[in-house]
Amino acid sequence: MKRLLITPLLLGLFNFSYLKAEIRNKVIISNMFNACVEQEDYPKGIGYQYSYCGCFVNKVSKGMNTKELVEFNLNIQSEKNTDKQAKLLLANQKIKNYIVECVSSSIEE
Fold first, then answer.
1. What count of other Cβ atoms lies within 10 Å of the Cβ of residue 60?
2. CA 27 to CA 33: how far, in whole Å?
3. Are 59 and 21 in contact (CB under 8 A)?
4. Out of 3, 18, 51, 86, which residue is the most buried by the measure of CB atoms under 10 Å away?
5. How high is the pLDDT of residue 39?
6. Would you tell me how many other CB atoms lie within 10 Å of the CB of residue 56?
7. Under a CB-based contact definition with an 8 Å cutoff, are residues 87 and 76 in contact?
8. In this structure, how many other beta carbons lie within 10 angstroms of the beta carbon of residue 4?
9. Nearest to 49 by CA among 72, 33, 62, 73
10. Cβ neighbours of 105 (radius 10 Å)
11. Predicted structure pTM score
């Protein structure tokens, strides 16, 4: 009986904020945005690119944690072939969803 009472008490003492995926580091967010907008050309215009990149960075920062993002980036960077990089990019379901959502919303603007 005492064990049942102590367990909720102990659980209440732990901070479960680490379970929430969110990146709050401004350097990481800024670097991600800058890498996104630093393209050689802008087929749909610079405004579209800024809109898309802002959306994408927002989705990643709210939907992933730093560890997930670092692991994802290391996987992408380990591939030198751009086709393989694209496949890795789209293999990540979160990233794929963010791309779809942001392309859709940027086109609608």
1. 23
2. 10
3. no
4. 51
5. 79
6. 20
7. no
8. 7
9. 33
10. 13
11. 0.75
pLDDT tens track for 31-88:
999 999 997 877 888 889 999 999 999 999 999 999 999 999 999 889 989 899 999 9
Domains of the chain, by residue range, sit at 20-108
Structure-block tokens of residue 28: 């990481």
Which tokens sit at 102?
């942001």
Euclidean distance between CA atoms 73 and 67, whole angstroms: 10
- Give 15-41 pLDDT, tens digit per residue: 444 446 799 999 999 999 999 999 787
Helix ranges (DSSP H) in 1-109: 2-13, 26-37, 46-63, 66-78, 82-91, 93-108
Specify whether the CB–CB gap between 93 and 51 falls below 8 A. no
